[in-house]
Give the backbone structure.
Amino acid sequence: MSKFSRRVDDPLWKAILEHVFADFLCFFFSDAEEVFDLDRGFEYLDKEFETLFPPEPNSRGVRFVDKLVKVFLKSGDIQFVLVHIEVQSSKGEGDLARRMFEYFYKISDRYRVPVTAVAILADSSRTYRPSVYVQEFMGTRLRYSFNSYKVLDQDEAALRADPNPFAVVVLTALQAIVHRKASDEGLMSIKHDLYDEMMKRKMGKRSRQGIYDFLTYYVSFQNDENLVIFDKEIKEKLGRSDTMGTREYLLEKAKSTGLQKGLEKGRLEERARAEAEKFDIAREMKRDGLSVEQISRFTKLSIEEIEKL
C-alpha cells in the first residue's frame, strides 16, 4: 500500500448529476415519484447560479460543483422547487453551513419559490457534519437546517443492495474515501467491482455512460497507463471494441499514427483521452455560460479551439 492519498476529481459530480438526476431525487427522497414530475425533465440553472454566486478568484473544488436545478411538481402547479446540491470532498474552510444559508436566501429572493438543499459530504473526516446554520443577536434568532448526507456514514452492503443507479455513484465516492491509499492494482480491482455493480442495475444508455465515466475518472491511477488497461479490459468484458463513445475519434486518430508501439502506444492513447476530456469540459462550461477567456484559463485550450465548439 502506498503512502500517498489519491486525487479525486470533484467536478465530475456536476456531470453525473445531470446524467442521473431523476435517480438522485429518488435516492434521497422516498416519495420523489409522487411529488416530482420526473417525466417532465429538469432545468439546470448553472448559468443563473453563476450570476448569483460568481466564482471567486483562484477558487478551487467546492464552488465548481454547485448545482441548481428546477424540478417540476406532479401536482400540475406552475410552482416548482429549486434543488441545490453541494458536494464537498474536503473540509475546506469549514464555512459550508454559512454558504448554504447564503445560497438559500439569495435563491429564495431571486425566484420566490420553495428551496430544498442537499449537501453531499464526501470528505474523510468523521467529525465534520454541517447541517444547520444559526445566527442570533439581542433576542433575534435564525436557524437554517438543510439535508446533509455523509458518504462516510453509508453502509457498503446497503448500497450494493440498492437497485437505484445513484447508489453506484455513492459507492464510488465511499470507496474513494475508504481506499484512498490503495495501490494501482487495488484501485484496478475496485474499478472493476464498481463496473460490475453498475451493470447489475437497469438504466438508460446515457445514465450508464455517465456512471461509467464517473467510476473510471473520479479517482485517478498513479500510473496513467493503467487507465488505458482498465478501459481495454472493460471492452474485453463486453466482447467488443466500441464501448464508450465520446472520445473514440481522438483515440482512433492517436492509434492511426503508427508511431508508437506497446507501452508507448498506451501513453499516446492516454494523451489523446486527456485532450478529449479538455474538450468535453470546455463544451459543458460553454453551455453553462462561462466566458471563452475563463474556459481557456481553466482548460488551457486556445480561444480559437473553444470558439469552434
Notes: The first strand starts at residue 42 and ends at 44. DSSP finds 14 helices and seven strands in the chain.
